[in-house]
Amino acid sequence: MKIWVNNALVNDADAYLDSSGWPQDSGLFETMRTEGGRVQLLARHMRRVITRAKILEIPIPHEDVIFDAVEGLLENEPHEIGRLRFTFSKDRFIATHQGYLDQSESFRVATHSVSDHEPGRRDKSYPYTSNLQLLENAVKSGFDELIVIGGDGRVAEGATSNYAFRVDGQWVTPPMSAGLLPGVIRALAVEECGVAVRDVQREDLGRCDASIIMSSLKIARPISAVDTRSLIIDSDVELICSKLRHLATTL
Question: Signal peptide: which range, if any (predicted)?
Answer without folding.
Answer: none
